[in-house]
Amino acid sequence: MTDGVDRLVAAGRALRSAAPHRLPDALRRVLRAHWAVQEAELLLADYGLTVLLPVTSGPNGPEPVPVRGSAPGQAFGSQQPYVEEPAVGRARAHLPVTVRGDRLGVLSLTLPVPDRERLAELTELAELLGHEVVVAQRDTDLYVRARRKDRLTLAAEMQWQLLPARSCARAEYALGAQLEPAYSVFGDTFDWTTSAGRLTVCVTDGMGEGIDAALLTNLGINALRNARRAGVPIEDQAALADQALYAQYRGAAHLAVLLADIELGTGRMRIVDAGSPQLLLQRDRALSPVDLDAQLPRGMFDGTRYTAQEFTLLPGDRLLFVSDGVHGVAAPGGEAYGERALARAAGNASLLPAADVPAAVLRELAGHRGRPEPDDDALVMCLDWFGRRPAPSDARSPGTGPHSRDPADRQRRYGGDDTEADENAHESQE
């Protein structure tokens, strides 16, 4: 094995053998021994995606770093290494810590100016660290605590624990979502799951406030997951979740849900619209609502039946899922944050990757309502659809940019794995 591979193997072994709360210490020892790193700091993105917070076990640690306008924030936003050279022969390297498209934070290092090979090794080490953090946080609160700029309400704690991640990516798609107010959200949430051939996503809006809304949403999401894992179609998933909610609340509480299932090989999407979340399509730079048949929210009546509508995605499409805390917000003058304002926000974010779009839209929403704190939960989910890579004989000239079909460009921007896509395509053909 080459020296670089040996170093990464040794680093991986050290991280895996460390106690969950000792990962940062094990990381620093490895970096000093193999890469002559003087200082190392793991920074995790907070729930509001506004600052990067240091992972520390003590009460006093380094100050939070803003995501916007800082060197670590540059690495976090671009998902590329960012190197500063503040002194002769020394560098400050900031490396994205990302797992399958889920952007956790940044690893900041002080070390001798690295060459391209060393920087590539350290970037790979940062990714390996991300995987270890995801595993370790099942057994310690260290990393969950580090993400908190402020204290979470109990309802928000329940909602964030319910979520799958805030972003993910594969060769066929990239997803990102964000909730507001991040530290006191109570009724809105989202969910997604992927397999070799399918992607299922949902956006929910539970009635009520505080703990009552959080409990309702938790029951609804877990009922949908239970039905989905039984392998039934989405209209039956909707019906089974409806039964579970009605059995518990007898119609006194209900859950608005937008549920979609996408066939990865073809882009064929089946949708069940049951309530207030809306779906908008950005195609060829134009944003328009997807016309869906509104059906009853889950849990409103006993024995409700649901039907799915079909829609086909094209490579380059962008979907925005928004809750009523977005499209229903009024400005101080009374103007609703409707289709025109959403189109403007989507246009301003058109060059951003999917993971960055929800926060960008929510920032414009805050400007529209004229005050920082919302009256209601607000949720935005963005799905960029790339489709499966065509066979070489059918390949067209690839484009570039955030909606590019070029696999290399997709991977640079979103971290998609084209090898996995090829394997999945082979499975679907079989």
UniProtKB/TrEMBL annotation:
InterPro entries: Bact_Sigma-Reg, PPM-type-like_dom_sf, PPM-type_phosphatase-like_dom. Residues 403-416 have a biased composition (Basic and acidic residues). Keywords: Hydrolase. Residues 390-430 are annotated as: Disordered. Gene3D superfamilies: PPM-type phosphatase domain (3.60.40.10). Residues 170-385 form the PPM-type phosphatase domain. Pfam families: SpoIIE. Transmembrane segments: none annotated. This is Phosphatase. It comes from Streptomyces asoensis.
